[in-house]
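User: Please predict the structure of the protein below. I'd like the answer in C-alpha coordinate form so I can feed it into my own downstream comparison script.

Assistant: Understood. Taking the following sequence of 349 residues as input:
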Amino acid sequence: MANIDYFTQRDEENILKIRELRLSLPFFCSEFLMGIEQNTSSLTRLGYARDLKLFFEYLVNETEEFYHKDIRQLTLEDLNKVTSTHLEMFLSYLTVYKQDGRTYRNGEKAKARKLSSIRALLKYFFKKEKISSNVGSKLETPKIHFGEIIRLESDEVVKMLNTSEDGNGMTKQQLGFHKHTKARDFAMLSLFLGTGIRISECVGLDVEDINLNENAFRITRKGGNRVVLYFSDEVADALRPYMEERLNRKDIPKEEHALFLSLQNKRMSVRSVELLVKKYASLVTPLKHITPHKLRSTYGTNLYRETNDIYVVADVLGHKDVNTTRKHYAAMSDDIRRQASTKVKLREK
Protein backbone atom coordinates (compact mmCIF):
# COMPACT_ATOMS: atom_id res chain seq x y z
CA MET A 1 0.00 0.00 0.00
CA ALA A 2 1.44 3.40 -1.00
CA ASN A 3 2.26 5.83 1.77
CA ILE A 4 -0.28 8.67 2.00
CA ASP A 5 1.48 11.80 3.19
CA TYR A 6 0.14 14.00 5.96
CA PHE A 7 -1.13 16.76 3.70
CA THR A 8 -2.96 14.40 1.33
CA GLN A 9 -4.62 12.74 4.31
CA ARG A 10 -5.52 16.12 5.81
CA ASP A 11 -7.07 17.23 2.49
CA GLU A 12 -9.13 14.06 2.27
CA GLU A 13 -10.40 14.53 5.82
CA ASN A 14 -11.28 18.17 5.08
CA ILE A 15 -13.17 17.21 1.92
CA LEU A 16 -15.27 14.70 3.86
CA LYS A 17 -16.03 17.34 6.51
CA ILE A 18 -17.08 19.81 3.80
CA ARG A 19 -19.45 17.24 2.28
CA GLU A 20 -21.01 16.68 5.69
CA LEU A 21 -21.43 20.41 6.29
CA ARG A 22 -23.04 20.90 2.89
CA LEU A 23 -25.99 18.87 4.16
CA SER A 24 -26.83 21.71 6.57
CA LEU A 25 -26.33 24.56 4.08
CA PRO A 26 -28.55 26.03 1.34
CA PHE A 27 -28.25 24.06 -1.90
CA PHE A 28 -26.57 26.94 -3.73
CA CYS A 29 -23.61 26.74 -1.32
CA SER A 30 -22.62 23.45 -2.94
CA GLU A 31 -22.28 25.24 -6.28
CA PHE A 32 -20.15 27.91 -4.61
CA LEU A 33 -17.83 25.46 -2.84
CA MET A 34 -17.32 23.42 -6.01
CA GLY A 35 -16.88 26.56 -8.09
CA ILE A 36 -13.94 27.81 -6.02
CA GLU A 37 -12.31 24.38 -5.62
CA GLN A 38 -9.56 24.95 -8.20
CA ASN A 39 -8.33 28.17 -6.60
CA THR A 40 -8.59 27.41 -2.88
CA SER A 41 -7.27 24.86 -0.42
CA SER A 42 -9.54 22.35 1.27
CA LEU A 43 -8.78 24.08 4.57
CA THR A 44 -10.03 27.41 3.18
CA ARG A 45 -13.22 25.84 1.85
CA LEU A 46 -13.85 24.10 5.17
CA GLY A 47 -13.52 27.45 6.93
CA TYR A 48 -15.97 29.00 4.44
CA ALA A 49 -18.49 26.18 5.00
CA ARG A 50 -18.35 26.60 8.78
CA ASP A 51 -18.70 30.37 8.60
CA LEU A 52 -21.59 30.19 6.13
CA LYS A 53 -23.40 27.68 8.34
CA LEU A 54 -23.16 30.10 11.25
CA PHE A 55 -24.37 33.00 9.07
CA PHE A 56 -27.43 31.22 7.71
CA GLU A 57 -28.30 29.91 11.18
CA TYR A 58 -28.19 33.51 12.36
CA LEU A 59 -30.47 34.66 9.53
CA VAL A 60 -33.19 32.08 10.23
CA ASN A 61 -32.99 32.41 14.01
CA GLU A 62 -32.39 36.12 14.57
CA THR A 63 -33.79 38.17 11.67
CA GLU A 64 -37.38 39.02 10.87
CA GLU A 65 -37.07 38.54 7.11
CA PHE A 66 -35.77 34.97 7.31
CA TYR A 67 -37.19 33.88 10.67
CA HIS A 68 -37.84 30.12 10.96
CA LYS A 69 -37.18 29.40 7.31
CA ASP A 70 -35.59 26.05 6.48
CA ILE A 71 -31.92 26.70 5.77
CA ARG A 72 -31.77 23.95 3.18
CA GLN A 73 -34.68 25.51 1.30
CA LEU A 74 -33.12 28.98 1.05
CA THR A 75 -32.66 29.99 -2.59
CA LEU A 76 -30.59 32.48 -4.55
CA GLU A 77 -33.68 34.69 -4.49
CA ASP A 78 -33.39 34.69 -0.69
CA LEU A 79 -29.67 35.44 -0.93
CA ASN A 80 -30.57 38.41 -3.10
CA LYS A 81 -32.60 39.78 -0.17
CA VAL A 82 -29.60 39.89 2.16
CA THR A 83 -28.68 43.51 2.86
CA SER A 84 -25.61 45.27 4.26
CA THR A 85 -27.69 45.81 7.41
CA HIS A 86 -28.01 42.05 7.84
CA LEU A 87 -24.24 41.77 7.61
CA GLU A 88 -23.72 44.57 10.14
CA MET A 89 -26.18 42.93 12.52
CA PHE A 90 -24.37 39.60 12.08
CA LEU A 91 -21.02 41.15 12.97
CA SER A 92 -22.58 42.66 16.08
CA TYR A 93 -24.12 39.29 16.96
CA LEU A 94 -20.71 37.61 16.68
CA THR A 95 -19.31 39.65 19.55
CA VAL A 96 -20.93 37.23 21.98
CA TYR A 97 -23.62 34.61 21.40
CA LYS A 98 -24.85 31.32 22.83
CA GLN A 99 -25.24 28.06 20.96
CA ASP A 100 -25.99 24.61 22.33
CA GLY A 101 -25.51 25.87 25.87
CA ARG A 102 -22.05 27.33 25.17
CA THR A 103 -21.00 30.97 24.98
CA TYR A 104 -18.89 32.04 22.01
CA ARG A 105 -16.95 35.28 21.59
CA ASN A 106 -15.31 36.76 18.49
CA GLY A 107 -12.71 39.47 18.29
CA GLU A 108 -11.77 41.66 15.34
CA LYS A 109 -9.80 39.00 13.45
CA ALA A 110 -12.50 36.34 13.82
CA LYS A 111 -15.20 38.77 12.66
CA ALA A 112 -13.11 39.82 9.66
CA ARG A 113 -12.56 36.20 8.64
CA LYS A 114 -16.26 35.33 8.85
CA LEU A 115 -17.18 38.45 6.88
CA SER A 116 -14.62 37.42 4.25
CA SER A 117 -16.39 34.07 3.83
CA ILE A 118 -19.76 35.73 3.24
CA ARG A 119 -18.19 38.23 0.85
CA ALA A 120 -16.67 35.40 -1.16
CA LEU A 121 -20.10 33.79 -1.55
CA LEU A 122 -21.81 37.03 -2.58
CA LYS A 123 -19.00 37.99 -4.97
CA TYR A 124 -19.14 34.55 -6.61
CA PHE A 125 -22.85 34.70 -7.42
CA PHE A 126 -22.79 38.40 -8.33
CA LYS A 127 -19.99 37.70 -10.80
CA LYS A 128 -22.10 34.87 -12.29
CA GLU A 129 -25.01 37.34 -12.49
CA LYS A 130 -27.21 35.15 -10.29
CA ILE A 131 -27.82 37.93 -7.74
CA SER A 132 -28.39 41.58 -8.55
CA SER A 133 -25.96 43.23 -6.13
CA ASN A 134 -22.89 42.51 -4.06
CA VAL A 135 -23.76 44.02 -0.68
CA GLY A 136 -20.62 42.55 0.89
CA SER A 137 -18.47 45.02 -1.02
CA LYS A 138 -20.30 47.93 0.63
CA LEU A 139 -19.30 46.91 4.14
CA GLU A 140 -16.01 47.92 5.70
CA THR A 141 -13.85 45.18 7.15
CA PRO A 142 -13.61 45.36 10.95
CA LYS A 143 -10.47 47.29 11.85
CA ILE A 144 -7.88 44.95 13.30
CA HIS A 145 -5.66 46.33 16.03
CA PHE A 146 -2.36 44.53 16.34
CA GLY A 147 -1.20 44.23 19.91
CA GLU A 148 2.28 43.68 21.25
CA ILE A 149 4.05 40.81 19.52
CA ILE A 150 4.95 38.17 22.08
CA ARG A 151 8.19 36.29 21.45
CA LEU A 152 11.08 34.77 23.33
CA GLU A 153 14.12 36.82 24.24
CA SER A 154 17.58 35.37 23.57
CA ASP A 155 18.07 34.15 27.13
CA GLU A 156 14.62 32.51 27.08
CA VAL A 157 15.48 30.64 23.88
CA VAL A 158 18.57 29.23 25.60
CA LYS A 159 16.57 28.27 28.70
CA MET A 160 13.87 26.53 26.66
CA LEU A 161 16.38 24.46 24.71
CA ASN A 162 18.32 23.62 27.90
CA THR A 163 15.12 22.57 29.66
CA SER A 164 14.16 20.29 26.78
CA GLU A 165 17.54 18.58 27.22
CA ASP A 166 17.87 18.36 31.00
CA GLY A 167 14.25 18.52 32.21
CA ASN A 168 15.10 21.14 34.81
CA GLY A 169 12.01 22.28 36.77
CA MET A 170 9.80 19.36 35.68
CA THR A 171 7.62 17.36 38.04
CA LYS A 172 8.42 13.71 38.77
CA GLN A 173 5.65 12.64 36.41
CA GLN A 174 6.90 14.94 33.64
CA LEU A 175 10.43 13.60 34.06
CA GLY A 176 9.07 10.08 33.59
CA PHE A 177 7.85 11.01 30.11
CA HIS A 178 10.81 13.29 29.42
CA LYS A 179 13.37 10.49 29.40
CA HIS A 180 11.52 8.98 26.44
CA THR A 181 10.95 12.23 24.52
CA LYS A 182 13.88 14.56 25.27
CA ALA A 183 15.74 13.86 21.99
CA ARG A 184 12.54 14.45 20.01
CA ASP A 185 11.57 17.57 21.96
CA PHE A 186 15.02 19.14 21.67
CA ALA A 187 15.12 18.42 17.93
CA MET A 188 11.64 19.86 17.34
CA LEU A 189 12.18 23.04 19.37
CA SER A 190 15.55 23.59 17.67
CA LEU A 191 13.88 23.22 14.26
CA PHE A 192 11.11 25.70 15.18
CA LEU A 193 13.52 28.26 16.62
CA GLY A 194 16.17 27.75 13.95
CA THR A 195 13.99 27.85 10.81
CA GLY A 196 10.66 29.54 11.68
CA ILE A 197 8.51 26.83 10.10
CA ARG A 198 4.76 26.70 10.68
CA ILE A 199 3.26 24.07 12.95
CA SER A 200 1.56 22.31 10.01
CA GLU A 201 4.88 22.23 8.16
CA CYS A 202 6.53 20.66 11.19
CA VAL A 203 3.81 18.08 11.78
CA GLY A 204 3.82 17.13 8.09
CA LEU A 205 7.56 16.35 7.94
CA ASP A 206 8.58 12.82 7.00
CA VAL A 207 11.95 11.23 7.70
CA GLU A 208 12.71 11.35 3.97
CA ASP A 209 12.31 15.14 3.96
CA ILE A 210 15.47 15.67 6.02
CA ASN A 211 18.94 15.75 4.41
CA LEU A 212 21.58 16.08 7.13
CA ASN A 213 24.42 16.00 4.58
CA GLU A 214 23.16 19.20 3.00
CA ASN A 215 21.55 20.75 6.11
CA ALA A 216 18.37 20.92 4.04
CA PHE A 217 14.76 19.80 4.33
CA ARG A 218 11.60 19.84 2.23
CA ILE A 219 8.36 21.27 3.54
CA THR A 220 4.88 21.74 2.15
CA ARG A 221 3.86 25.40 2.35
CA LYS A 222 0.35 26.77 2.65
CA GLY A 223 -1.28 26.18 -0.72
CA GLY A 224 0.57 22.90 -1.26
CA ASN A 225 3.86 24.18 -2.72
CA ARG A 226 6.91 22.05 -1.89
CA VAL A 227 10.06 24.05 -1.11
CA VAL A 228 13.53 23.31 0.22
CA LEU A 229 14.77 25.21 3.26
CA TYR A 230 18.10 25.06 5.06
CA PHE A 231 19.14 24.88 8.68
CA SER A 232 22.30 25.67 10.62
CA ASP A 233 24.86 23.20 11.96
CA GLU A 234 23.38 23.85 15.40
CA VAL A 235 19.97 22.61 14.26
CA ALA A 236 21.60 19.68 12.45
CA ASP A 237 23.36 18.71 15.70
CA ALA A 238 19.95 18.66 17.43
CA LEU A 239 18.27 16.63 14.67
CA ARG A 240 21.01 14.01 14.18
CA PRO A 241 20.73 12.15 17.54
CA TYR A 242 16.93 12.09 17.33
CA MET A 243 16.94 10.79 13.76
CA GLU A 244 19.44 8.09 14.64
CA GLU A 245 17.26 7.07 17.59
CA ARG A 246 14.13 7.24 15.41
CA LEU A 247 15.61 5.10 12.60
CA ASN A 248 17.11 2.47 14.91
CA ARG A 249 13.94 1.72 16.84
CA LYS A 250 12.35 -1.62 15.99
CA ASP A 251 8.93 -0.89 17.50
CA ILE A 252 7.96 1.74 14.91
CA PRO A 253 5.75 0.40 12.07
CA LYS A 254 7.53 0.42 8.71
CA GLU A 255 4.63 2.25 7.11
CA GLU A 256 5.00 5.20 9.53
CA HIS A 257 7.13 7.84 7.80
CA ALA A 258 6.47 10.80 10.12
CA LEU A 259 9.59 12.47 11.49
CA PHE A 260 8.14 13.45 14.86
CA LEU A 261 6.28 10.66 16.62
CA SER A 262 4.06 10.47 19.68
CA LEU A 263 4.67 7.93 22.45
CA GLN A 264 2.18 5.73 20.57
CA ASN A 265 4.54 5.77 17.54
CA LYS A 266 2.11 7.78 15.43
CA ARG A 267 2.53 11.14 13.73
CA MET A 268 2.15 13.90 16.29
CA SER A 269 -0.98 16.02 15.92
CA VAL A 270 -1.06 19.80 15.78
CA ARG A 271 -2.65 19.82 19.23
CA SER A 272 0.06 17.62 20.78
CA VAL A 273 2.79 19.91 19.39
CA GLU A 274 0.98 22.95 20.81
CA LEU A 275 0.89 21.27 24.23
CA LEU A 276 4.57 20.36 23.98
CA VAL A 277 5.56 23.98 23.34
CA LYS A 278 3.24 25.19 26.09
CA LYS A 279 4.83 22.77 28.59
CA TYR A 280 8.38 24.01 28.02
CA ALA A 281 7.37 27.66 27.74
CA SER A 282 5.52 27.54 31.08
CA LEU A 283 8.70 26.29 32.75
CA VAL A 284 10.86 29.01 31.20
CA THR A 285 8.60 32.07 30.99
CA PRO A 286 5.26 31.39 32.73
CA LEU A 287 3.92 34.93 32.19
CA LYS A 288 4.15 34.70 28.38
CA HIS A 289 1.64 32.77 26.29
CA ILE A 290 4.08 31.04 23.94
CA THR A 291 2.75 28.97 21.02
CA PRO A 292 4.50 27.43 17.99
CA HIS A 293 3.59 30.59 16.08
CA LYS A 294 5.36 32.67 18.74
CA LEU A 295 8.47 30.57 18.14
CA ARG A 296 8.06 31.49 14.45
CA SER A 297 7.82 35.16 15.46
CA THR A 298 10.97 34.77 17.53
CA TYR A 299 12.87 33.36 14.56
CA GLY A 300 11.51 35.99 12.15
CA THR A 301 12.50 38.84 14.45
CA ASN A 302 15.99 37.43 15.05
CA LEU A 303 16.51 36.83 11.32
CA TYR A 304 15.54 40.42 10.53
CA ARG A 305 17.94 41.77 13.13
CA GLU A 306 20.74 39.70 11.62
CA THR A 307 20.01 40.47 7.94
CA ASN A 308 18.30 43.86 8.19
CA ASP A 309 16.31 42.73 5.12
CA ILE A 310 12.58 42.26 5.50
CA TYR A 311 12.33 40.69 2.03
CA VAL A 312 14.70 37.90 3.04
CA VAL A 313 12.57 37.26 6.13
CA ALA A 314 9.36 37.21 4.07
CA ASP A 315 10.87 34.71 1.61
CA VAL A 316 12.20 32.35 4.27
CA LEU A 317 8.93 32.43 6.23
CA GLY A 318 6.86 31.87 3.10
CA HIS A 319 4.94 35.15 3.17
CA LYS A 320 3.55 36.12 -0.23
CA ASP A 321 3.21 39.74 0.86
CA VAL A 322 5.98 41.54 2.75
CA ASN A 323 3.29 43.53 4.58
CA THR A 324 2.26 40.30 6.30
CA THR A 325 5.79 40.04 7.63
CA ARG A 326 5.77 43.64 8.78
CA LYS A 327 2.43 43.28 10.58
CA HIS A 328 3.39 40.15 12.44
CA TYR A 329 6.85 41.15 13.54
CA ALA A 330 6.44 44.47 15.28
CA ALA A 331 10.08 44.56 16.32
CA MET A 332 11.00 44.97 12.65
CA SER A 333 8.92 48.11 12.32
CA ASP A 334 10.39 49.39 15.57
CA ASP A 335 13.94 48.75 14.34
CA ILE A 336 13.15 50.37 10.98
CA ARG A 337 11.85 53.49 12.75
CA ARG A 338 14.87 53.51 15.06
CA GLN A 339 17.26 53.38 12.08
CA ALA A 340 15.27 56.04 10.23
CA SER A 341 15.76 58.47 13.11
CA THR A 342 19.51 58.55 12.43
CA LYS A 343 19.35 59.07 8.65
CA VAL A 344 18.31 62.72 8.42
CA LYS A 345 20.89 65.25 9.61
CA LEU A 346 19.71 68.68 10.71
CA ARG A 347 23.20 70.20 10.80
CA GLU A 348 26.39 68.80 9.38
CA LYS A 349 29.11 68.60 11.99
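That's the full C-alpha coordinate string. The radius of gyration is 24 Å.
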